Amino acid sequence: MKQLTLVLSLLLTILLMGCTISDEELTKTTIDNTKQAFEDTPKDSNEQTKLFSYYLPEEFTIKETKMYNVLLEKGSKSYLLFVNENEEANSKVSYDTLVEKYEKPFISETFEDKERFGYLFVNTLEKNTYEVTVGIGGTKLTTEAKINDVSDAAKNMMDIVKSVHKK
């Protein structure tokens, strides 16, 4: 009986270790997915506010819309979309503000092309919980995500951010 308990405990420990993603793997996967989304062709807008239009994936819903902000939800998670109409797509102001605010971010990565400056910024809130911000110029989207959701959240967020078209 003791041997069975020991074997089961060992198997459970191995299984749980396999479910946890390493910091290096999380960083690489998140950066790669976000960069690919930045480089992909923007999806067509399917939502509008008075100041801008944007693409919203099917699994997201709109909770509240204000002049420069849209509060989105996906399941129980909230996302805040902010659009600064005075900042162009190549502006670095939002990114620089995050860099000044957080001394040691978990991930700070930038992406650029001829017309746009994009970024991924991930800050550790507590063990296995992160604040994820994705932006292009003056447009940014922020949420909180558990460790296993960071990469997918960042990719979906970049899909939304890159689709924003100011009127």
UniProtKB/TrEMBL annotation:
Signal peptide: 1-22
Keyword terms: Signal
Highest rank taxon of the organism: Bacteria
Keyword Signal: yes
Protein name (Swiss-Prot/TrEMBL): DUF4367 domain-containing protein
Species per Swiss-Prot/TrEMBL record: Metabacillus bambusae
